[in-house]
Amino acid sequence: AQRLRRVVEEVRAVAPRHGELEALLGRLRAYRHAGRIRETLAEALGALREHEPGAIGLAARAARAVGHLAEILPEVSALEQRLAAARVELEDVAGTLEERLREMDFDPRELEALEARRAALERLLARYGPDEAAALEQAREAEAELEQLADLEGALAQAARALEASEAAYAACAAELARRRRAAAQKLVPAVESELRQLALERARFEIAWSPAAAERVGGGAGVPLSPRGGERAEFLLAANPGEAARPLRRVASGGELSRVMLALHVVLEEAGRDRVLVFDEVDAGVGGAVGEAVGARLRALARHHQVLSLTHLPQVAAQADRHYRVSKEVRDGRTRAAVCELDRQARVEELARMLGGRRRSETSLKHAAELLQALGPWARRGRLAQDRHA
Question: Are 331 and 346 in contact, with CB atoms under 8 Å apart?
Fold first, then answer.
């Protein structure tokens, strides 16, 4: 603030005007050459008016002479007019010279004042220049900053009140969000555990742990960290077997268990979002028979509102898909390549038979595969849907 006040005081004390220094230096140059200037102006004025004959008088004499000649030669009348105009112009020049000569009556006190003003301007512009406009602009900016500083305490108090109000509103919203989350968790946990029991995790325990959210902003009203996700963080826990402590899914669940937990969550939360792409890898790992059929049924249910991709080795799951792709590997040109091809109905029967009986397909496995596809496949589902509609 002290520096700003100094800028304003120094510029305002000198009060420079735009272009003042340049004009002042021109005046001082005239003072330094005052004798020569007066002498030259006086000589020019004498040549026009004071000498005998002077230029003005000669121009007037020439105009009269040509005027007399115009009586004989009318075509020279234009010359008379030009000479008359030249005399008028010379009279005007002489008047200007007289005025400038009077101005050159220098006062020593004025010279002293000009020198003092020049020194003051040069000192000011050396600090705040390069010219008067720059110095005046710095003074205006400094005044504006001083005005802001004068009201800084009031602005800080207003900002503190606004921050306090915002933090209180955030704390209220975070508390309401926490209440709703816990209410939703009370419904989600038993629903997920019910689904897990149908997916060969009969004795699994699903829990939700709560912890304070990591603050992503400075501050926080009522001890609540400022985070766009609310005041707390939810983490899913799983105890796959009795006697085990529930631990975070990312640490304790195997690939198959994690896929089945995610499948259960998606089934329970099916209406929470639509038109998503869901990918399940080995969701049927470690299960078979009726459990595999239950897994397939849940994947099929999800496919009503989402695109579901499932990598599986279980025929009870593959039979329920709308489309069946076989992924195989082959070696070509010394490199292993993966190939994916879509199967028609007959190819599906053969692939299901292979999944049922290994590489050797028997009549029994082919018959079993056809029955499985007939009972669980998309054609069977369409038939049941048509019957339901007819009924």
Answer: no
